[in-house]
Amino acid sequence: MIMNTGIIAVEEERDKINEMSKKYIELYKKSLERDDKIDKISLISRWGIKIGAFVGHIKVAFSNKNWLRKNIDHGLITLSSKLSQWGIKRIANKQKENNQKEREEIQASFINDDGSIKEFLLIDDNLVTNQEITNQEDKTVALSI
Amino acid sequence: MINSIEIINEEGQKVNINIIMQFRIEELNKQYIVYTINDDGISEKIPVLIAETDDENGKYALKKIPENEVKTVLMFYDNVRDTISGKR
Asked: How many secondary structure helices (H) and strands (E) does chain B include?
């Protein structure tokens, strides 16, 4: 890594970068096909290339959750609050500061194929909706988007 | 590369860069671009640059990344890169 006037420089293999660029474009094109839904979750910046960060965030946030991992590359899963492990840790710390049992709490929203948005709350790996705690079967259905 | 655009660096100079991707760190409320500049298109290794960007009066500008945020930015870059490449 070279640090020069605040710009980070890393040396990468050309093949690796070309591969990443190709996949990035695929993600971008996929996002354009679902433009109406993308608007709702602000995936696209003026350059139209925020989706990579979006996917990355999810990967970071849910790296421990195998049940979600299969959906990560869907391209239309987003979270309504903080997404990274950093965010998770911060939430957990906040709980601890309040003298409550430390727990991992994540808010998430998912875009269904019909364009509707489902919102969830995840507490210590348990999926909670606004109304009820879902069982494993419900969880699978809910995430099969 | 995905795109080639003209941006303004901190010295106010116009620079043409090839964008590889962009990512955003919500916790910092900042966005970054990953790009190359003056790539010869031949070398096996490519110097890839990461800079903070800002939209100033409709023009994208490159900004310096504060030293205390470098580690976080690199962590996110690694994650985004590997995720897109399917290695995570």
From this structure: 1, 5
Q: Would you call A24 and B83 a contact, using CB atoms and an 8 Å cutoff?
A: no
Q: Is the ipTM of this complex over 0.85?
A: no
Q: Which of A96, A90, A24 is nearest to A61 (CA)?
A: A90
Buried b (16+ CB within 10 A) or exposed e, A21-45: bebbeebbeebeeeeebbeebebbe
Structure tokens at B17: 């860069």
Decide: helix, strand or coil at residue A107: strand
CA distance A115 to chain B (A): 24
pLDDT tens digits for range A59-105: 333 333 433 333 333 333 333 232 333 333 333 444 455 555 544 44
Q: Which two tokens stand for residue A20?
A: 């990443």
- Which sequence spans correspond to the domains of chain B? 3-84
Q: What distance in Å separates residue B7's CA from the closest CA in chain A?
A: 12
Cβ pair A85, A60 in contact under 8 A: yes
Of B21, B46, B79, the CB nearest to A49: B21
Q: Which of A122, A116, A117, A114 is nearest to A139 (CA)?
A: A122
Contact list, A5 vs chain B (CB under 8 Å): 10, 64
